[in-house]
Fold this protein.
Amino acid sequence: MSDPIPNPPLSSAPEPASLFQQLGERPFVCLAEALYRNIDGDARIRKHFPADLSPSSEAVRDMREFLTQFFGGPDHYSARKGHPRLRARHLRFPIDQAARDAWLDNALKALAEVAQSESLDETARGTIAAYLVRTSQFMINRE
């Protein structure tokens, strides 16, 4: 005997667009460049980063590709470097609360610049900021 009531689809609503789909690539490119430009001038943490923090540097490329992928864009980061393993990749760097706070200051400052220049709405800005706060706290590996 068959079921008299057919199973309805799980959801008829379309999947929401990823932040990358909503914003495009440019805000993430600008964010990576602004972050490392800020870090380049920050004596609190500059020594923990490679000498070259220019827009064409490996560090900026990694950050740009990582952010793009995380927020729903192409997986260029993983294709090139494998699984992000974010915390494991950073264990060799001493990240205490002060280093985390310095990095986050620079990241939020960069986000504010990008939010203004790229006209990000509060929802997008808040989503990115929440990710930066959460992830920076997760990266602490020293007391």
Summary: The mean pLDDT is 92. The two ends are 65 Å apart (CA to CA). Helices lie at 19-23, 26-40, 58-70, 76-81, 86-90, 97-117, 122-138.
